[in-house]
Automatic annotation (TrEMBL):
GO molecular function: acetyl-CoA C-acyltransferase activity
Similarity annotation: Belongs to the thiolase-like superfamily. Thiolase family.
Protein's name in the database: Acetyl-CoA acetyltransferase
UniProt keywords, alphabetically: Acyltransferase, Transferase
């Protein structure tokens, strides 16, 4: 088998994305993974003996979970002989699992599973100094969800994102406008039924969760403008940033022969995948740089792309990345903005950190199929100055 065989997204599903402390709060992360993987395998009727590996992305190892990907595979009823890998590249994690599957199939594997998952509601606080005792003095509890950057003096990621955005000409008003647009586009897509093939129901102790909890139909520019910046930063607020969310996304990838053997019509072809990195506070513009690089390597220009998904780690991230990709061309910037996150982004949908990268790929593939276009790109920043990007081509 050629190591450069085409790689296809067969199908994908995701859970509803829950609010922090919301409908998925009490669903164990292993069970969330189980339900998501089983739903995908049931939908595709894919033979599990064809699977070469499961890669699972997770940014916060909730509850000190050991070897998560292995536990996910066993809970989902996958073969004991199936190799697994857990990936932590912060927000990039879910997209990295897709990229790893792409590499494996290009190397001869028949098919792989990619899972991105996070339960931020179950992220523990850390109490250091307790294992060996403390004779006297205060014990400090650390909250990982404050999302500090240890490579930038321990400062807030939200603060540095706002500062970088301002330095690149994207201020508070533009960030609020992008956030409001995210909600409005989400509800238009919801009304059109665009998420019906993407979202599966998740069984919880209270019943079933069937819809995203984060989107706000009552959001407005006026309400967003009244919010104060968080963590002492200049622009990022609770309104133009996503929530701390729970959710899972799973995708099935396959090579050409496995696709033919199983007589399946795929969603899209993965044309290319790459990773880039920069300084520890560069994340706000890195998706734009990553998209530019992958397009250049494919002989394409930004104007050639029909569907663009950029993770709204903050509204600033998507806005600055589009501006970066346009490289000073105001007309092109407007065109690209109109093609980016057209069904809403993470500010509306939610951002379960380990899951979002996989969700972006799934959303881009479905929208590409829906639109009749040829090219789609999905990009995400994360991991203290890193970014992942995937270029998709429409299925034949």
């Amino acid at each position: 088998m050629s190591k450069h065989q085409p790689v296809w997204i067969v199908d994908g599903v995701r859970s509803p994305f829950g609010r922090f402390g919301g409908g998925l709060r009490d669903v164990p992360v292993v069970d969330l993974a189980r339900q998501t993987l089983q739903a995908l395998l049931k939908r595709t009727s894919w033979p599990i003996e064809d699977l070469a590996e499961l890669n699972a992305g997770m940014a916060m190892i909730e509850g000190g979970l050991m070897v998560p990907a292995r536990q996910f595979a066993m809970a989902a009823g996958l073969p004991e002989t199936l190799p697994t890998l857990t990936v932590d590249r912060a927000c990039c994690s879910g997209m990295t699992t897709v990229g790893l599957g792409w590499r494996a199939i290009r190397g001869g594997a028949r098919s792989t599973l990619a899972l991105g998952i996070e339960s931020m509601s179950q992220t523990p606080r850390l109490l250091h100094e307790t294992r060996w005792g403390s004779k006297r003095g205060d014990l400090v509890v650390e909250d990982l969800l404050l999302l500090r950057n240890p490579l930038a003096g321990g400062g807030s990621i939200a603060r540095s994102a706002g500062e970088e955005a301002l330095s690149r000409g994207v201020g508070r008003e533009a960030q609020d406008a992008w956030a409001q647009q995210s909600h409005e586009r989400y509800f238009r897509a919801l009304a059109a039924g665009y998420f019906s093939d993407e979202i599966i129901a998740i069984t919880t102790p209270e019943g079933e969760l069937i819809a995203d909890e984060q989107p706000r139909a009552d959001s407005s520019l006026e309400r967003l403008a009244r919010l104060k910046p968080v963590y002492g930063g200049p622009t990022v607020t609770a309104g133009n940033a996503p929530g701390l969310n729970d959710g899972a996304t799973a995708l099935l990838l396959a090579g050409e022969q496995a696709l033919a053997d199983n007589d399946v019509a795929p969603l899209a072809r993965i044309h290319a995948y790459l990773q880039i990195a920069g300084g520890p506070t560069s994340s706000v513009f890195l998706p734009g740089l990553a998209i530019g690089r992958i397009l250049a390597e494919a002989g394409l220009t930004p104007a050639d792309v029909d569907v663009i998904e950029i993770n709204e780690a903050y509204a600033a991230t998507a806005a600055v990345s589009v501006k970066t990709l346009a490289a000073g061309d105001a007309q092109l910037e407007a065109v690209l903005a109109a093609r980016t996150n057209i069904n809403g982004g993470a500010v509306a949908i939610g951002h379960p950190t380990g899951s979002s990268g996989a969700r972006l790929v799934l959303t881009a593939a479905r929208q590409l199929q829906r639109s009749g276009g040829r090219w789609a790109v999905a990009a995400i920043c994360g991991g203290f100055g890193q970014a992942d990007v995937i270029l998709l081509e429409a299925a034949r």
